Amino acid sequence: MRYVFYITDNGVTAYNGQASGQNVSESFEWNDVALLDAYLSTMPENAEADVILDLVDEDLYFEWAPKVHTWEKGAIAERRKQRIHQDTIALSEVHWTNTTQTSEDGRKEELILSATVTDTFNVSSFLQSLEEAQIILKSIHSKAFLLEEYFNKKVRPYLKLGRQDLKKPFLLVTRQTENTYRQTFFYNGELRLSRLVEIDKSFEDFESISQALIDETKMAITYVYNQKIVPFNSPIGYVFLDGEQRMLDAILAMCQEEGLIRSTWEEDEYFVGTANFRKITPDGLNCQREYSPCYSMQAAVDFVFSNRPKGFYRNDYVKKINLLTSGQKIFIAVNILIFLSGLYYVLITGVDTLLSWQKQAMLEQKIQQHESEKKRLQEMVKLQDDAQQIKASVEFSEAILTLKVNRLISFDVNALSQVFSNHSNIQLSTIKWKTIDRFDSRRNQIDIKAWVFPFYETYHDPVMWVDAFVAELKTLQGVEMVQLQKEPLNRQLGQALSINSKMGEVDALPFTVTLRVKDVQPK
Prior knowledge:
Elements: E1 2-7, E2 11-16, E3 25-29, H1 33-41, E4 48-53, E5 58-66, H2 70-84, E6 89-102, E7 108-118, H3 122-132, E8 136-142, H4 143-159, H5 163-166, E9 170-175, E10 180-187, E11 190-198, H6 206-226, E12 237-242, H7 245-257, E13 272-276, H8 277-280, H9 296-307, H10 316-381, H11 387-406, H12 413-422, E14 426-435, E15 443-452, H13 460-474, E16 479-486, E17 497-501, E18 504-518
Parallel strand pairs: 1-4, 4-8, 9-12, 12-13
Antiparallel strand pairs: 1-2, 2-3, 5-7, 6-7, 9-10, 10-11, 14-15, 15-18, 16-18, 17-18
Helix pairs in contact: 6-7
């Protein structure tokens, strides 16, 4: 359960993040010590709390210091904090702002902030009461710097301001209560001035309150010029935040009438805007209630509940809580890391086991396929025969294939066919095969009748072609004798005949060749 304690100079307002209706907040004056202690005693043991300080006696002091290395800033800030800490100071902080400049003598400088809260006994006493009640105090916020973060996270997107707009000087005016306002000045995106302004409670009408606010705004701008934070009469922007729309509707026109917005300024040098807290955070714990006020007090509390911003001030109790919280986070992170490591190990082991199962299943499947293939091959080749029988079967098959090609002639018939292919001028007419002598003789004779072409009334080329044909026949393996029985040498032209060839009707000469070949060997 989370709580937010809003501290002002008048007292404390406690906000319960889980309550509803009228129980959301409860206010106590500083004199109501017994009631406040009773309220703290009723809070749960595991309650977490944030504190927002909205006090007049909060001083912000800015000064330029020599620029140092990052690792040196912590020690310098701690020494400065020890110097400004006194018995009259309840809280103090020193922060480097990261805003730099080069001085007139060429030295690089960085702006450093010193913030103090004067001890009025009420603040320190209340913080001590929180510690005694063992309430987990998470953060102590400065209202000025909380408004800076609220503006960056909520107001800037609502007004659609760019990053370049934030570098321009502007005054943020927020309404705290019915007659209280806070003026916060920004320069180069950094908070440089913040002060509480209280309007006379006798001003009850709208016009009087608006005029008093404009007068206080003039005083703030005059102070900024006099302190030379910005050059005199340079453009300054304005942002007004309020919970009543009628105040916002007329405020910009009054700024122009009263000279806060000057006609001589260029429009791109400044910006102005107004926004209603209810519209900025319509879902806030307090601002969503229609009949309750919604000023910067309620909006800041809603912002702390929803966004959990980082605190500004730290005392010993807050440091102790943050240290324990950090240790708890580290312990949880280590446990999560150990859990994730174990989960990773289990996951990897599971994946390896699953892959092993898959590999084993694939191996068993391959073994079954191998066995099936083995059985199929056994049935095909009948593995009961030994290797010698298989070799004899192969040799017998090769002999049968040879007989299919060579038939009963022991030389290669394909080679004889190739001879005819090699001599395109020879055309086969007839071929006859016969056995010489007795029936079972081993001698065979092949008679070939063919034509030689073309014949153009000269015998030179045909004789040459036939001689080449006969010569190649003699080179065939298995041939014993090649004899040209009938030569194309008859000079009577009437012997020439016309044959059909690829060249058309041509004249050709007949001739006869006899081949004697060896008989076939037994297979």
